[in-house]
Each structure stands twice: as C-alpha cells, then as structure tokens.
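Narrative summary of target 7.
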Amino acid sequence: MTVTTYRNIKKDVVFRYLNVEPITAVAAFHSVGADRNCGFRAVSFDVNQDQAKWITVKADMLKTYLKYKDTLFKVVDTDVVVQFEEQRMIKRLQSTKSPCLDDLHLWFSTFICPQLVADTYERPVIMYCYVENCLKTGEKRINYESQWYVPLINMQLADSSKPITLLLAFSHFYYVEFSHTPKGRMKKFNKPVLNMDHQRLRNDYPNLCNPTDYSVLF
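Modeled conformation, tokenized:
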C-alpha cells in the first residue's frame, strides 16, 4: 500500500480537518493504507519510517499492554466487563488481518491505544479527531476534538518535543507532520488539552508512574 502526502494548505482539503492555530505549523498529512489498520500504520510511519511495519507496532504495544493490563490499562468496570475488554484488546493487538473492514474491534481504539503508544515508545502522542454530523434539519455540525497523551512510565526529555501525531477523520487515520524551525525545533501551535485519565492514573499507581510528571513539560 502506498502513502499519499498532502502539503498544500490552500488546495488539500485534509487541512480543514485539523483545528490547529496557526495551520502553517503543520507541514504535511500522510495518508497511509486504508485497510482499517490505518491507526497502527500511521504510528509505524513515524516510529519505523515505514507504514508496512504496522504488525511490529502491534507486537510492541502488546508487550506493554500485557505488562500493565492489570494496572495502567485496566478498564474501570465490573469484573466481567474488565475480562471482556482485556481479551478484546489482546485480540486487537494480535491480529494481522488485512483488510479488517468488517471488524471494528480490530481497529485502533482512540480510547486506549494513544496512551499505550505513548508508553510503548516513550514519546508523547497527540490525537486529533474530526467529526461531521448531519442534523435532521440538513445542517452540518462539525466537531474538532484533540487530546495530548504523555508517557506515564518513562520518557527522555529530548523526546518531549517529538510527539507522534495522529488525525482521525471519516474512519481513517493520517499521520500529521509538524513544521520545524531552521534550528530543528517544532514551530509553536495551540496545544490540545491533556487527556482526562492522566492524573487519575498517576494517583492510582504512584509506584508505577515516573516520579516526574511529564505533563508539566507541555
């Protein structure tokens, strides 16, 4: 599968899917293979410089998940639901099915996968979502959502400025490439809010989380 890259702010419609100010802080959007493994492919496009290594990304994430499934990545619910969600997550990360258009439970979950990616690769993750809804009146309602995920376990300070940035729009993930200054620093832009579970997890598992709260860096 090929990767299609969009760089033209005025002509490429994908730039409208991102609520970033200034939009010139974004250098490009990279559209990876649309086999519904696109979330994992987008991560691989960053960490492996190759979207085709998405199965390796899943294997890396599975190792982290199995290590912390009873703590950091345990859902808050009844025992039955906890067990069900655990098995579903393991199935998602073990799957090598492509395409998997008919099974949304194998897709990259925006609820648990971003934090899992952050702690697997020890880098921050930015998750953007663009949602269009048509009302009964025929009016189109657009929602822009964004959250920042910070590693809980470990992160090199040098990696704090190297976020893995994803955009979900119309059930497809894009990898977002930010612009850099001549000195190699990311250009400034309005940062998303920190994900709501960050502080809860730090409070619940102080012995697992790094004493340094990396969210202060952002």
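The first helix runs from residue 38 to 47.
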